[in-house]
Amino acid sequence: MGRITLDKVRKAFGDVEVIPPLDLTIEDGEFVVFVGPSGCGKSTLLRLIAGLEDVSGGQIRIDGEDATMVPPAKRGLAMVFQSYALYPHMSVKKNIAFPMKMAGMPQDEQERRIASAAKALNLTDYLDRRPGQLSGGQRQRVAIGRAIVREPAAFLFDEPLSNLDAALRHGMRLEISELHERLTTTMVYVTHDQVEAMTMADKIVVLQAGVIEQVGSPLELYRAPLNKFVAGFIGSPKMNFLEGEEAAKRNAHTIGIRPEHLTMSTTEGAWRGTVGVAEHLGADTFLHIHPDSARSETMTIRVDGSVTARHGDVVWLSPQEENIHRFDETGLRIA
Amino acid sequence: MATQHSRSAARLMMAPAVFVLLVWMLVPLCLTLWFSVMDYRPMRGTFDCCEGLGNYTRFVTSSSFQDAVVTTLMMVGGILLITVIGGILLALLLDQPIWGQGPVRILVIAPFFVMPTVSALVWKNMFMNPVNGLFAHLWRGLGMEPIDWLSQLPLFSIILIVAWMWLPFATLILLTSVQSMSSEQLEAAEMDGAGAFSRFFYMILPHMARAITVVILIQTIFLLSIFAEIFVTTGGAFGTRTLTYLVYQRVIESQNVGLGSAGGIIAVILANIVALVLMRIVGKNLDA
Amino acid sequence: MARAITTQRKITLTAVAWIIALLIFFPILWTILTSFKTEADAIADPPLFLNFHWTLENYAVVQDRSDYMRYLWNSIAIAVGSTALGILIAVPAAWSMAFVPGKKTKDILLWMLSTKMLPAVGVLYPIRLILIQTGLLDTKGALIVILTLINLPIIVWMLYTYFKEIPGEILEAARMDGATLRSEILYVLTPMAVPGIASTVLLNIILAWNEAFWTLTLTTVDAAPLTAFIASYSSPEGLFYAKLSAASTMAIAPILIMGWFSQKQLVRGLTFGAVK
After folding, report:
1. Which of A101, A317, B249, C276 has the fewest CB atoms within 10 Å, measured from its CB?
2. Domain of C139, in residue numbers
3. In chain C, count of helices (H) and strands (E)?
4. What CATH number does domain A238-327 carry, 2.40.50.140, 3.90.1010.10, 3.40.50.12780, 2.60.40.650?
5. Are C88 and C209 in the same domain?
6. Are residues C87 and C206 in the same domain?
7. Measured on CA atoms in the order B174, B175, B177, B182, is the torsion positive or negative?
């Protein structure tokens, strides 16, 4: 079981309130991702759940029991750190065994769990090595192995992939997702990378300045962002925002349109502009367009990789009206 | 960045160290403070209240006090000057690619291992003795009159002996610092047209600033209490009586505990002023 | 720097470095050589470098005159004892400062360091008096405690700088893994900090071994370490250079040998952890 409830949880460092009172429920078995720009309080929130920081107010319940004052080791949670935090002086095997040794688990049970974790994580051949002799991806797996053997109520991940290169990151993303499918244990995952959030989460929690901006499934967030911040944060490349006349025409203060919801023509359309930088990714091409009327600085459009457009070409853009997001002056979505 | 629980554990774990140092500092200091206002001369059996500030005025107004302060400053300053400048030069030299870097480094740090009584005695007798010392042999060999180092140039001689013992330390810290200088930075400076001297003064020296402060701080801590070197060489004669040594003489040799204690308190106050100034500087540099 | 250095330049630099290094080392070398000379050879003019009559008699004379082994044992007991006691008190304190820093941490650290600046002479008489009253004057126990106290600030400071290099996340991981404070320090922190602790231990053994103020003023016979053994040669007595050299060599040899064997840790320790 692993149902985590945050009830008016608040955190201040001295006079600085980094997390104003906040409510959140993480259901058992859910994969929840905290996402937001750096400094938004997502890691602090995770550390509060872990018990590595004291809350300044409110209550944390794990499976209904008040865990607010329970020390980290007694909460039944396991954590994977950004730096992996492996013990450099211990072999892989001893690293994985450490939490069981601390819990005083019988030797044969320890051996059994190490063997099965090592098998699941492809670490069987490396059990006698030291962390310093492993690659980044292997260290990551050891850190996960150390978490798995405890059979925790929930896993906490603190930006676990940010130290890996792009290719490895993609592989590990799949591995963690598969792990979740197999174990069906609650996972709380912190990242600043919205791609990780979109691809892995059952439920995304978008944070800004310690405040939850929106909670929902990846597609809910993509289709119906509650405000301009979420709209701009989720989706890549970023949503284009326009103000003024075009927005007023649609009864809004600001309108947003995603690059993939614009169509381009060389002859006709709603907005005329010139092509600036063209980013060719192969399958797709992102074009940065300078509109003639300076309602927005540049607009990004996603077109098929076969489209040839060069710097300085004049093009016309048209939005798909049904995919326009409307926001009022405070940045909130207009339904 | 921690929980209430770990913070209280931290306080508990820090307590023994803080407590023993506090006791170590306060108890003797209070006793000294008490003795310093008494007429306390154990050899004569006097232990009379109360001199008030009499001991202090007598100690401060005596000419030996002013001499001792000057001697202390010159000694510490001289040693610092030699070790810091010598250390910088040696560090730059040892940073160069040479054959046998390891053995050279061992030879250079060896004097630090020698206990002060040994080095003082060896220098005094085998090098600085005006008749049989090695320097005397050398001077005679060059056709000059040998120098009686410890009576003609006593302060300089002691500075030399102590500087020899501390030069390895300064060299080692400064060498570590030079080696941590990024060579890319130096190459960039070279591309920008900086010559060897500008590279030294604008790049290397500022980079070493922190290490130099550390050298000065640690050496000052140890140098303010130089004792054995004076004890076995001149015994405080010939203008080599530092404040530390003067107080030692008053308390132990002439057994005037009241007067000596007043001197001790003054020494503590002066040392604290020096400490305060140094701590300010280092406290700032520790963050970097 | 990845650059070709001319051989000639390297030869010149090597020569200069070796000459300076040998000059710095010379007093020690000369002392060791003299200890094997006869007293007459020791003051020969011009000085004899290697072509003298080698003899061990000085060592025998020095041993006869004062019981070297007893002084040696006292030195070892005092240096090792005070270092061990210091480490025991300093490890928890340094842990607190490095991993649970508060607003006052730096002030406490600087205050500790400042007690090191307290001129020992200012408190010498009261300490002597206390030791006389309690019958602890001239005992190893008293010296161990005093040397622990005077070196404690340095030990705390060094351990603090070494501990700070250890990422706090690893200790947090241990805490998440269910380690108590004791096992966190015993199984995770200490093994990771072994090089730093070794450096600290070595440096403090040297500092305690060479400490000459308290050892000279608080001992007479029973607890006198090698510093006092040597000080007894401070008044000249006829021809005594060779004997002085033999005694000096015996006093510094243990530390020199230890220093050469543990060069790497020691060099690290000598920087007091202050410079990386």
Report:
1. C276
2. 67-232
3. 15, 0
4. 2.40.50.140
5. yes
6. yes
7. positive
Residues C27 and C114 in one domain: no
pTM of the entire structure?
A: 0.80
Q: What is the pLDDT of residues A91-115, one digit of tens each?
A: 999 999 998 888 888 999 999 999 9
Question: What integer is the mean pLDDT of B68-93?
Answer: 88
Structure token digits, residue B190: 């070279």
Q: Evaluate whether residue C269 is within a structural domain.
A: no
- C71 falls within a domain: yes
> Are B210 and C195 within 8 A, CB to CB?
no
Cβ within 8 Å, pair A53-B1: yes
Please check whether residues C144 and C55 belong to one and the same domain: no
C neighbour chains, 3+ CB pairs within 8 Å:
A, B
State the Cα–Cα distance between residues C180 and C200, nearest whole angstrom: 26
Mutate to test the interface with B, among C9, C123, C181 (most CBs of B within 10 A): C123
Ordered by start, the domain boundaries in chain A are 4-231, 238-327
C167, C175, C183 ranked by CB distance to A83: nearest: C167
Q: Using CB atoms and an 8 Å cut-off, which of residues 235-274 of chain C contact chain A?
A: none
Q: pLDDT tens-digit profile of A70-88?
A: 888 888 889 998 888 888 8
Q: Looking at residues B27-45, what average pLDDT do you find?
A: 75
Phi–psi pair at A282, nearest 5 degrees:
105, -90
Contact A239, A231 (CB under 8 A): yes
Q: Is A86 helix (H, G, I), strand (E, B) or coil?
A: coil
Same domain, C78 and C142: yes
Residue with token string 């901006």: A213
Report yes or no: C186 at the A interface, CB cutoff 8 Å: no
Q: What is the DSSP string of C103-169?
A: TTHHHHHHHHHHHTTS-HHHHHHHHHHHHHHTT-TT-HHHHHHHHHHHHHHHHHHHHHHHHHTS-HH
CATH number of A4-231: 3.40.50.300
pLDDT at B40: 73
C32 located within any domain: yes
Instruction: Find the helix or strand (DSSP H, E) in which C64 lies.
Output: helix C57-65
Q: Whole-angstrom Cα distance, residue A94 to residue A127? A: 8
Residues forming beta bridges with residue A4, ordered by sequence position = A26, A62
Q: Are residues C159 and C102 in the same domain?
A: yes
Residues C42/C238, Cβ–Cβ less than 8 Å: no
Please report, rounded to a whole number, the percentage of residues in chain C having pLDDT higher than 90.
Answer: 3
Backbone angles phi, psi at A291, to 5 degrees: -70, 150
pLDDT digits (tens, 9 = 90+) for B62-74: 777 788 888 888 8
Question: Residue C69's pLDDT is what?
Answer: 81
Tens of pLDDT, residues C148-199: 988 888 888 888 888 888 888 888 888 888 888 888 888 888 888 888 888 8
Answer for the pair B15, C96: CB distance below 8 angstroms, yes or no: no
Whose tokens are 């503590």? That residue is B268
Contact A71/B5, CB-based, under 8 Å? yes
**Can you tell me the distance from the alpha carbon of B201 to that of B189, in angstroms, rounded to the nearest whole number?**
12
Q: In terms of domains, do C33 and C112 share one? A: no
Q: What is the ipTM of this complex?
A: 0.80
pLDDT higher than 70, residue B272 = yes
| Kind plus residue range of the DSSP H or E element containing A175 | helix A166-183
Statement: residue C1 has pLDDT above 50: no
Domain end point (choices C30, C59, C88): C59
Residue C271 confidence (pLDDT) above 70:
no
Alpha-carbon span A28 to A183, nearest angstrom: 12
On whether both C20 and C36 belong to a single domain, the answer is: yes
Q: Is A54 on the interface with B (CB under 8 A)?
A: yes
SS3 category, A277: strand
**Mutate: best of A52, A80, A139, A150, partner C, most C CBs <10 A:** A52
